[in-house]
Amino acid sequence: MEKIKRCLIAVGSTNFDELISAIDNKQFIQQQNYRGEYVPSRLQSEKIKVQIEKFIVLDTLIYESDLVISHCGAGILLECLRSDHAICIAVVNNTLMHNHQTELADQLSKEGYIFQATPQTIADKTKEVIEIIRNSTLKDIIKQYPKVQENLIVNLIDEILF
């Protein structure tokens, strides 16, 4: 695969300072979406463009990104899965109630759709995934999520009624 051109970092609608703090390093990001209090300070360089956005629609940014490092929110993970090329590293936010993100990340990772990390392991996981990307094709890296079957419910109702 080609060299990564754009990496999107997204934390969702809750603060996830642990993730942003963990990746506040030049090797990680070119684009980020962030709502927390921690402001990355070590990410500026001639080669890395940092853009902080708050409360934006992510689907366009996901489709423009090669790598997405995200919290384990169902919405953003589904958008990543629907993308035909974005590789996702889902980072579990253990501070959330009942640690519900772990179940989703565990299952999607187990099935081969995403990579999984924690704020403590994101640096090593990112290095690992970038190395995999450099040496593999997309179909060898992640399992493609099934495409949306438009009108599925309508067609099922038609079958039942007619």
Automatic annotation (TrEMBL):
Annotated GO MF terms: N-acetylglucosaminyldiphosphodolichol N-acetylglucosaminyltransferase activity
GO terms, biological process: dolichol-linked oligosaccharide biosynthetic process
Record localization: Endoplasmic reticulum
Protein keywords: Endoplasmic reticulum, Glycosyltransferase, Transferase
GO CC, any one term: endoplasmic reticulum
Glycosyltransferase keyword on record: yes
Predominant location category: endoplasmic reticulum
EC numbers for this chain: 2.4.1.141
Key word Transferase present: yes
Domain Glycosyl transferase family 28 C-terminal: start-end pairs: 7-130
UniProt-listed Pfam families: Glyco_tran_28_C
Family of the protein in this entry: Belongs to the glycosyltransferase 28 family.
Full protein name: UDP-N-acetylglucosamine transferase subunit ALG13
